[in-house]
Amino acid sequence: MSAPMRPPRVAPALAWLETHGSPLYVYDLGEVEQRARELMSVLPAGSRLLFSLKANPLPVMAEVLCRMGCDAEVSSPGELSVALAAGFSPEQVLYSGPGKSAEEVRGALGLGVTRFSAESWTDLERVDRASRAARLRSRVLLRVNPDTPPLARLAMSGVSSQFGLDEVEWRAGRERLAALSGIELLGVHVYQGTQLADVPALLSSLRMAFEAGEALASALDLPFQVLDLGGGFPWPFATPGTGLELAALREPLARWAAERRKTASCELWFESGRRLCGSSGTLWATVLDVKRSKGKQYVVLDTGIHHLGGMSGLGRVPLVGMGVARAGGEVAPEVLEEVNVVGPLCTPLDCFARNVKLPPLRVGDRVFVPNVGAYGATASLTGFLSRPPPLELAHREAELVAVHRLRWGHEPQARPPLEGALSEESR
Ligand SMILES: Cc1ncc(COP(=O)(O)O)c(C=O)c1O
Predict the structure, then answer these.
(1) What ligand 1 atom has the least distance to the C-alpha of 231?
(2) Ligand 1: nearest atom to the Cα of 97
(3) In the structure, which protein residues have their CB atom closer than 6 angstroms to any atom of ligand 1?
(4) Residue 267 bridge partners (DSSP)
(5) Phi, psi of 255, deg, nearest 5
């Protein structure tokens, strides 16, 4: 059973706001460990769980998940360096993403990473070329875009997308694959979409991933070693609540794992970012102003879309659900006022919530947004309006473990980039 999310710890957070300033992301590492244990417990025996650093590349988050026994899924040189510094060995890293440059593939190989997910023929042949040049053999998963979409708000496969290749395109390339001496084909990668809402949605998309693996292994008749089934394991975002109970996945996943034929000897991999770190993070902020405008009440915070949900400007992020805290604990929602909660940026898009009911707020009050441990700070518009990125603090049982601030700003460059045609090597 999923343990309920622990409520944010008000007293230590108020003290940290005094010491470290506001706004402040606070991460509870015990939550991360709890979520990792829960997720691992429903996966078939012998499966690997990859932590997707895109959800939260905070160094201490990666360290905790490395210690919990995860591998790492990275999609940029920055995520790779966090993963390696956190203790993941290069052999534990899967390098994925639809636009890997030759330079970053070379960089990853130079750091000892040889596991890549190939998202197209161009991508695969780029990895092959770089591997041969480095006298290495990369171990590659073919990312497949299955034919059916998942039941997800943000479908990344099963629809026309930049992710992976339609199965028929990989199928048709048996000879082309055989000619690539810089790679060994490790298996198949499917990632259907994030935030799959319920157990039926998760099961249907994981089932589809099993089938895609079987189909491609049969069509290519190759001895695959890995079937990466993706994930999409959900957790509420920026609103109170506890994530979906996952126990109902255990039995069908174990059964499907046992029923495999062509991929029977494949290790099963799953990926997760949101489920592992979403519940651990709370964004704490301070009320800077309270005012009325043409009959409506506005609460101005010292945080906004540069710290959380930068994509709200694109209509993606739902209304943020907030709590209010004063010395003595969370303010009970007894008397409520309808307010618009906005940030300090000079754009009307900097709005967390419209017409929400909150306890009456005063300047200096502390407010918090729960469930922002994934796709929070680094998924925001941190550069917009040149305000500093938020401070991020991690604790275990209210004992401080780490404090970080994202780097931000313009680095002067020694000279303008070289002009001229791309060399053959950099294509
Ligand atoms: C290939 C891949 N793996 C894993 C993830 C992590 O998804 P989530 O954070 O929903 O678990 C994503 C998210 O976009 C992804 O694209």
Answers:
(1) 11
(2) 1
(3) 52, 54-55, 73, 96, 156, 191, 194-195, 231-233, 271-275, 374
(4) 226
(5) -65, -50
Report in angstroms the alpha-carbon separations of 25 from 284, 286, 324, 382.
6, 12, 15, 14
Type of residue at 90: P
Paired tokens of 106: 């070379």
Q: Which helix (H) or strand (E) holds 125?
A: helix 121-133
Max intra-chain CA distance, the chain:
71
What integer pLDDT is reported at residue 174 of this predicted model? 87
Q: Are 296 and 344 in contact (CB under 8 A)?
A: no
| pLDDT value at residue 328 | 81
Distance CA 204, CA 7 (A): 32
Q: What separation in Å is there between the alpha carbon of 388 and the centre of ligand 1? A: 27
Q: For residue 215, name the pLDDT band (cuts at 50, 70, 90).
A: very high
Helix (H, G, I), strand (E, B) or coil at 237: coil
| Residue 327 CB partners (closer than 8 Å, separation 6+) | 14
- What mean pLDDT, rounded, does the chain reach? 91
Query: What's the confidence (pLDDT) of residue 305?
Result: 92
CA 192 to ligand 1 center in whole angstroms: 9
All structural domains of the chain: 96-272 (3.20.20.10), 279-405 (2.40.37.10)
pLDDT above 50: residue 314: no
Is 258 in a helix, a strand, or coil?
A: helix
22 versus 336: the higher-pLDDT residue is 22
Helix H or strand E encompassing 274:
helix 274-277
Q: How far is the CA of 38 from the centre of ligand 1 (A)?
A: 18
* Lookup: tokens for 334: 């007894």
Percent of the chain whose pLDDT exceeds 70: 91
